[in-house]
């Protein structure tokens, strides 16, 4: 999965079994058995279908990028048998903020990158953007995480940090989809 | 045209007559008679078709936004009978830079916002993003300018400033489409 665009299709097929779908905020997504990741949209009908595109980093500084690059490992590690997909939509208020205001909330107030860094390389992640794919996308981002099951408690601690941060006051929809290979 | 997504369709129809298409860098766009702006893609065939989406500001600080908001006027002014559409693609090198590196080149080195501010309210502008609409977009941005024909020399001075800036070293394709109502 090194293409820029990825379709996340929930239904009866796919490498990943869906263990649980937790609605954190806003409308839920219906349950399904399996999740398929593919560059193209599936030809058969899905329980639900999300799509996201990899894009340039929006907040990361050169120093932070160097630290991330030094510590992070790729997706697809053999022992990363648990994955979590977290679709998020932020409020219009967030998108109307200026770049410096968003950066300040994201990092200086919420420590999004510096706290995430503490969980590397155990928790691998990849961000997909949705908001500018079209005018009717249900989410702004999809974040994909992969780790060894022994790290699931640490992962939950990372989520707890983020969900109680200033940045998360701007989150108006969030779903937490737990998967296993 | 207050929708987020806009299609720019060149052919025999549209409010704007195409006066000239100048290829500044990279592949040209073929000539056509008229340009139509619409939310949806046209049903008939076009000489060429570009699309862009309005999105959040990527570099503007709160201070700069306040200055811009205080000086700028909207599109569609009665005496703005000249428009210019400038599609641009930047290099992969640009997109691999971190946010602080891009901001530094954009504003501290190239004065993109502060010089543009000097031409307000005469030169009205609107930015459309293309890069994250899909994986095969020919351009990264479309910028739309509108002004009274008496300001065309000032507009060319603004373009000269930008085209000789550090930021423009990352531009690998640029077309300059002059239009009149």
In short:
The first copy, chain A, has helices at 62-71, 92-96, 99-109, 112-118, 152-163, and strands at residues 5-11, 16-25, 34-38, 48-53, 82-90, 124-129, 141-147, 171-180.
Descriptive overview:
Two copies of one chain form a homodimer. With 181 residues, chain A is an alpha+beta fold. Helices cover 25% and strands 33% of the residues of chain A. In chain A, strands 4-1-3-2-8-5-7-6 form an eight-stranded antiparallel beta sheet. In chain A, a hairpin with an 8-residue loop joins strand 2 and strand 3 (34-38). Chain A is globular and about 45 Å long.
Q: In terms of topology, how is this protein built?
A:
The structure is a homodimer of 181-residue chains.
Chain A: E1 5-11, E2 16-25, E3 34-38, E4 48-53, H1 62-71, E5 82-90, H2 92-96, H3 99-109, H4 112-118, E6 124-129, E7 141-147, H5 152-163, E8 171-180
Antiparallel strand pairs in A: 1-3, 1-4, 2-3, 2-8, 5-7, 5-8, 6-7
């Amino acid at each position: 999965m090194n293409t820029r665009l990825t379709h996340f299709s929930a239904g009866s097929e796919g490498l990943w079994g869906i263990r649980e779908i937790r609605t954190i905020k806003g409308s839920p997504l219906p349950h399904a058995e399996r999740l398929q990741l593919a560059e193209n949209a599936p030809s058969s009908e899905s329980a639900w279908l999300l799509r996201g595109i990899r894009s340039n980093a929006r907040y990361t500084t050169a120093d932070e990028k160097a630290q991330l690059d030094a510590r992070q490992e790729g997706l697809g590690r053999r022992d990363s048998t648990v994955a979590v997909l977290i679709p998020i939509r932020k409020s219009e208020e967030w998108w109307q903020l200026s770049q410096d205001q968003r950066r300040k909330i994201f990092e200086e107030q919420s420590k999004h990158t510096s706290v995430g860094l503490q969980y590397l390389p155990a928790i691998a992640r990849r961000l997909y953007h949705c908001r500018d794919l079209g005018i009717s996308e249900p989410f702004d981002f999809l974040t994909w995480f992969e780790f060894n099951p022994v790290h699931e408690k640490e992962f939950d601690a990372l989520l707890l940090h983020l969900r109680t941060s200033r940045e998360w006051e701007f989150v108006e929809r969030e779903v937490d989809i737990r998967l296993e290979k």
